Amino acid sequence: MQHNLETFEQAIVKLNALVIEAFNRSDVKTCAESYAEDATLLLADRPLIKGRDAIESALRKYATSGAKLMPVDLLDARSSGEMGFCLGKYEFTVPSKNGTQTMEKGKFVTVFMRQPDGSWKAVVDSLIRD
Prior knowledge:
Elements: H1 2-24, H2 28-32, E1 35-42, E2 49-50, H3 52-63, E3 68-69, E4 73-80, E5 83-95, E6 101-114, E7 120-129
Parallel strand pairs: 1-7
Antiparallel strand pairs: 1-2, 3-5, 4-5, 5-6, 6-7
């Protein structure tokens, strides 16, 4: 059982790195592909964002604004069978109207489901600003 947990954590670390790199070059399509087709994204002060296409649109707003994600601090990652979750902290910079950068910090929890091809896709992703 321990081997499966390590495999899940390694997959999530790799997936997070891929998403951050894609986001920072405004490749929101690659970011959105880390979500299941029927995934739900929960952001502060926004209605539920349901479905991969809607998530891609929401991510595009941030990525094209010049926001840059920093590597996440993964605090926990566990799986059992076909489900898993990770918990961590995030930071990203957002350009302001006067040209300075503002740092936003927060925490996240993401629930994953193993796909038929063995990959993991986010089914629920919740981000909460500090």
